[in-house]
Each structure stands twice: as structure tokens, then as C-alpha cells.
TrEMBL record, chain A:
GO molecular function: iron-sulfur cluster binding; oxidoreductase activity
Protein name: Sarcosine oxidase subunit alpha
Keywords: Oxidoreductase
InterPro entries referenced in this protein's UniProt entry, alphabetically: 2Fe-2S-bd_N, 2Fe-2S_ferredoxin-like_sf, 2Fe-2S_ferredoxin-type
UniProt key word Oxidoreductase: yes
Residue ranges of the TM segments: none
CDD domains in the cross-refs: fer2
The keyword Oxidoreductase is assigned to this record: yes
TrEMBL record, chain C:
Domain FAD dependent oxidoreductase, chain residue ranges per copy: 4-349
Protein name: FAD-dependent oxidoreductase
Keywords: Oxidoreductase
Pfam families: DAO (PF01266)
GO cellular component, one term: cytoplasm
PANTHER family linked: SARCOSINE DEHYDROGENASE-RELATED
MF GO annotations: oxidoreductase activity
Transmembrane segments: none
InterPro entries to which the protein is assigned, alphabetical: FAD-dep_OxRdtase, FAD/NAD-bd_sf
Amino acid sequence: MFQRSDPPDITITWDGRELPARSGESLATALLAAGVLSFRETPVSGAARGPLCLMGACFDCLVEVEGQQNVQACMTPVHPGLRAAPQHGVRDLPEVEAA
Amino acid sequence: MSTDVDLLIVGAGPAGMAAAVTARSRGLTVLLLDENAGPGGQVHRGIEHRAAKDEQDADGAKLAAALRSSAVETRFRATLWAVEPGGKVFWSEEGAARSAVAGRILLCTGATERPLPIPGWTLPGVMTVGAAQIALKTAGLKPQGDVWIAGQGPLLWLYAKQAVEAGGRLAGIVDLSHGIPPAALRHLPRALMAPGYLLKGLAWQRRVKRAGVRVIHAEEIRAEGEGRLARIVVDGTEHAADLLLLHDGVVPNTQITRAIPGCAHDWDAVQACWKPRLDAWGNTTAEGVMVAGDGGGIGGARAAAHAGRLAALEAARALGRMTEDQRNAEAGTERLALNRQLAARPFLDALFPPRPVTAIPDETIICRCEEVTAGKVREAVTLGCLGSNQTKAFTRTGMGPCQGRVCGPVVHAVIAAARGVDPAQVDPFRTRFPTKPLTLGELAALAE
Amino acid sequence: MNRAIVIGGGLHGLSTALHLARMPGWQVTVLERRHVGRHSSGVNAGGVRRLGRDLREIALSMVAWEMWSNISALVGDDCGFQPGGQVKVAENAAELGKLEARAAQVRALGWTHEEVVDQAEVRRLLPAIAPHVVGALVCHGDGSADPMRTVMAFRRAAQEAGATIIEGSGVTAIERSGAGTLRVVTEEGTHEAERVANCAGAWATRIARMAGEEIPCGVKASMMIVTERLPHFCTPTVGPTGRALSFKQTVAGTVVIGGGHQGLNDPERETSTVLFGNLAHAARIAAELFPCVKGARIMRTWTGTEARTPDEIPVIGESRTMPGLFHSFGYSGHGFQLSPAAGAAVAELIARGATNLPVAPFTQRRFDA
């Protein structure tokens, strides 16, 4: 697992649960530091996945951020109160469901 | 087409930062785009927000400071997604698509890790060594508990050293390298011209071993667990594991250059990768498009900075801001320094040839996005697919969100091995713009 | 044994080779400059469409549709064919009027495959369509297939029928030998044959020119977009009436958007380039017809190089300057569906000198006037 060198200073919400985070870091490292390894299920087989590269290349760390789907957690900076959740398979089509 | 800026640089790593400052000092207007929050690239990640711990950090801090005090226009969190003929460049920033026309384009997109597909590498808890290094540099995350590293290459030992020095603890290192291959020895005399590199690598290994980290030399490794990593099996022996960090060297990030029509690439048999065909100044075969740094061939951070400055001088010449003689005169010391930096490279490259893809079992996924196995790719070859692009259209490998960034080198190598031909004869994925996803709505807005 | 050379390893070349190789007494060799399916055959939208065809193409398209309906019998693979229907939507009353006139025109020729539907029926077929759409022209039984899978299936079937496929072999000259046969010269060597088929797509006019024949035909580079995977929301392939778009959701859930918006073409370098300023129009029309996709991420865009004749229907027929050479090209961006039938027709022309298949309208004589 990963352990922080510096104490967290803010709080974010992951899947309805409050998690500590540190300003300036990415959502991906905040989740990893909190022991969250599985970020999503794939749209192909439904298998659990977590981040691979943390540099924006692999697209394996896709999550839902503030209601927006398939967002790369490693490229998303945290801020106090950020709300994120796992990406469950294929993204939704919100407009169609609302209609 | 009138231009908006003289030189547009993509990537604020050592090559991009050095090039930007040099070009600006020669009177060029410069726009520097980077998708991260600040300058540094991967090697100097988060350099403005942490204390310099070693020479490499000091280099990065110096480059970043020079960039900040220059009149270079920088845009961070800006993701380039297309380059069109005539110097037109598109990027996204804060959810909106933008474009500019540049006199010259310099791509400093660095390197990506060569994937190391082992059974179970898609389990949460399996990451790359580069990822762990980013976590350490940007968020101070250090390994603790049952954390294993597996693979080979200098970066593996550098990270292990950095992790240990930061107070992290590693359960062990699974070394998949094979000693010194005979092919490497002929590069040794030249490498000894730059002894610093070799000594550094040995010192990292000693430092890690002194910290009591267990090193296992092995042939085979697989990751296992239900829904997340629980253990690794190394040559038949199980070890508890909650994190596994993989590494098999780095390759040039050619995602953008391969998408540019007329930009030729050559197979580098020593580094076992494709790289754009460059002249001594970093010009590609596509008009007005240049490359500097690891994106043009792996040379490391210091080499990248020198190559960036040389490219900036050439851009100034191409745009009529200096004569060829002036450029050559100013380039002299940079070129000497660059050559010295590159001296150890062929030895290092030959020392760590990539793990043979024949070691990948048929049932192992190689395209993580579309979940295509090595066996599927091999089957496509038996059905007549000769190269990466036919195989992509046939199996969906490389068609997912990462657009073949991760699987590209492996798919290419698997096809070459299955056909029994020289990798140079197998085409790599043709990448396609947009090289980073943008929404239909963002693109539609350009039609207004 | 008669010998035939097919120039071009695209879908039309492979289909011609397959049909000919299955005829007794023919030894077929396909010469492909790069690799099979390199250009438009491997990267097109895979539209299996009779809807909205040029009236001169309908008869051949109907034959092809019969073949598509049982494509496994022809090539031993279903080619990913999904007969989800094709729908051309009307965005206003005037467009609906046009569609009604078109349906009447097709009916007058004796065909019944195109039918006009009202707003309620469009909504039933396309629950995600924008509310301003007032009706549509529908062709049930049309659909789409997987282009590269189709190419590979035709390739395998042709090989199993005895055809030889040589990749990486570009043709540099065609000449007549003293013995009266045709000699096809490549960089590697010379192939001699009684008959030659010109299925070289965007480069077919060059082959014709080698035989001393000028046929008016340009090139096009239609651009395509594919999105990330989305939940299933659309079964048919959809296009509007007054604007250029083709829109379909694949089995994988990705949405493929085309419609003929043109990129930059460079046939000399065998490349074509996406121009995002142009492609933005396709994205805009797609988002206006299906508002739910506005937030969908684009995964890739691409272009494929294809021949385009002045009247946008193909050239099929024997060369007038070099008897024994048969042309089949210029499908102008909608030849995918026609390929099983067109290949059969060209094979018959080669083997018997005549065919009962309806390809008469495609003679190059039509350009004489």
C-alpha cells in the first residue's frame, strides 16, 4: 500500500464516503493514499480496475467527478468537497434517460 | 495562413522548458502547452512544489525558474489533440477546444513506459514503477507493506532508491533481467566516456540492497487476487502482495508524431522502439514539425534539455531570426554536451533489452481497454493480419480510450514474433487525432 | 487453365477474385501494393444500404442485399452484418415532401424497399432522435457490417477457393505480349495473364492510364469519427435529408459518424488528413440530431481514400483501349454494400465476356457525351 509523507489537509467524497486528501495532489493519489485501489469496472467485461500509469496515458483510472463520467482521476486535481464515485462500466446517456 | 505564434511547444519537461527559454531569448514568440498543472514533465514532476533532493531535482528547478522568469506564454492543463498541415494546432483547455497557427511546432512529449504484460496485470493494485514515482513526487506517497517491484531497467532501481530514501518499505524486487548480454559489451568503451551514468546505476542498486530489500532473480511472475491484487507467484513461489509495480524500460512517446501525415518513423533495433526520423536539429520529415527530448529517442533529462536548445536555435534560423552561421556558432557547446550525455546510451539500451513477448501466455490481456488477449492477436496473424493496423481493425486492440498508447509496443512485438519477422517489417499503430479524447460538443463548437 | 490478375486487394478486388476463383478453369492472383484492406475497404463505415441509392444502382444493390442476407454462405463468416435498418430523417415538412417524392419514384420502378414513416414511427425506431424530426424514409433489412472483418473473410474465402494474394506488390505497367496475353509488371517481376481486373480504388485511373485509357474520376477522403462506448440507444443507421451525415451505433456501443465531410487528400503519398474545421460540422449535425451524444468523447477520427466519379456511380466494364482488362472502381464512397454482387459481375465479365447482373449502367461510355 501507499503511505503519506505529509498529512492530509482537506476532505473529499468518494462514493458517498468522506476521505482525507492533500491540496495540490490528484484525485488518483488521494484515493490510493486512502487505500482505494479499485476505481471502476470496465465496460467490456465488468472487471475491476485501478490506475496503471498516473500520467494520463492509460485511461484505466476513469471515475465519475461531479456527475461527469469517464474522467481521468490522475488528471483531476482535488479540491475541498470534491465529489467523485466509481465509474460503473459504460457511461450513461443522461439526456436520453431524462427525456 | 498568417501565424498566431512563432514557436508552439508541446510539453513542459526538460526539452520543452529549455527550448522555450532559448527561443524566447532569440526573439521568437513562444506558446508552451502542457497537460499537467505546472512545468517539469514526468522527470521533474511537481518540481515547483518540493525541495530539490538531488542533482536531477536541481536541474529541473533551474529550468522551471528560468521558464517562469521568461516572457514565454505558458498554458497548463492544456491538452493538445491535433496538428494539421500548415502549422494549425488544436488543444482543449477548461473543457473548450482552441486552435492556433504556429510558424514552427516543437513536440517535447517525452517517454512512456514500455508495458510489461504479465498474467493478472489488470488487477487493481498492479501499477507501473513510473506511476509510483509520480505518486511519490507529486503527493509524497511512499510504499509501505507488501509492495513488490518487478521487471528491469534503470528507472526501476532509481525509484527503489528514492522510495527507500523517502522512508518507504519494499517487500522485494523481482529482477527479470538477464545479466549483461554479449551485445551490450561492444558499447561499453563509449559508455565509459560518460562513467557517471554507469556508476550512478550501480550506486542505486547498492543503496537499495543495503536497505535490506530482497532481490529475487526470476523468469516468470504472475499477479493473482479476486477483484484486487492479493499475491504474486514468482517462479512458482507465492508471496503476499498488495501492490505490484511493473517496469520494462521506457520508449519514446510518438502518439502525436505518428498521427502526422508525412512524418516518417524508423525502427530502432537497439532501443526496440519506433522513433521519428530527425535530422541533427530535431526536424522531422513533416514540414515545420520538430521533436526534442525522449520523444525522439530515449536520452534522459539532461540530453533532452540540450536537444531542446538546439531545436530552438534551428527554429530561430528557420523563421529567419538568425543565420545558419549564427545558429551553428551558438550550437557548438550544446552539441558537445548532448553527445556526452548520449555516450552511455547504447550500452544501457543493450543492457536492458525488453522482455521477449514469447513469454506472454495466450490468455493474458495485452490491450487493457478492449480486453484483447495475446492469443487473439496471434490468431489474427494466422488469419492474415500482417501489421498492427489490420490487427486493430480486426480485433479492436488499440481501439479503446488509450488509443494504443499502452498496448502499442506489445501488439507490435507480438505480431512480429508470431510472423517470425524483423519488427521493422511490422507497421506500428497509425495513431489518429484527436490524440486525447474531446467531446463531440467541444468539436461541434468549432463549427460555429 | 486461364490466368487472371486482380489489381487491388480491397474488398472489390477480393470479391472479384473470390467469384472468379470459384469458376472452373481459372487461376487467380491478387496484386496488392500495400496490404489487404489498406485504404477505404478497411476503414469505411461498413454501411449495407439500399436506401437512397442512385436509381441506376438499385438493381445491383438489391442483388447485393440478397447476398448480404446470407453472407456466411458466400464467405464462411457473418462479417458482423447487423440488419438494423437504415433511416433517412426529415428535419422539416419540405424534406418530408422530398422523401415522399423519392419513395414514389422508387415504387414507380417496381421496388418496394423504401417506405415513408411519420413522426411517431421515427420516434419508435429512434427513441433518442431530436424532437424536431418530422418523419423519415426507412429501409428495413439494411444495416451495417464490420469492414475489416469483411475484408478478412473475403480474403480467406478467396484463398480457400485457390486464389493467390500477393501483398506489397505495386503495379507499374500493363502491356500486351506478343502471344496476345496481358503482362502486368510490378517492382518485383512480371505476371502474365489472359484477363486483368482493375480494382485499384483511388489509384484505378492510373492503372487505366497505363492501358492508355482516360476515365474521368477524382478522389475523395471522407472523414469519420468514432466515440467512446455508450449504452445502446440506436439500432438503425441514420442520416438526415438536407445535410450530410451518417450515424450509427456499433455492437460494441461506440458511435460511428461519417457522411462525406472531406479531409485533405494526398494520393501521391497515399495519405489523407482529417481537417477538424470541416469535421466539426459532422459533430455539430450529429449532436443536433442526437442531443444525447453531445457529451460523448471522440476516440478517433480518420479518413479513407476512395475514387469518386463525376456522377458518383462506379465504372464497371471492359477497357476500350486494352481488351482483356476489366475496370471495377469509382464506387464514390458507397461501394461496400455492392461488393459481393459487383465482384460476381466482374468475374462473369472476365470468364464469359457477359453477365446477367445489372451492371450495364456503369459502362465508362456514359462519360462520352
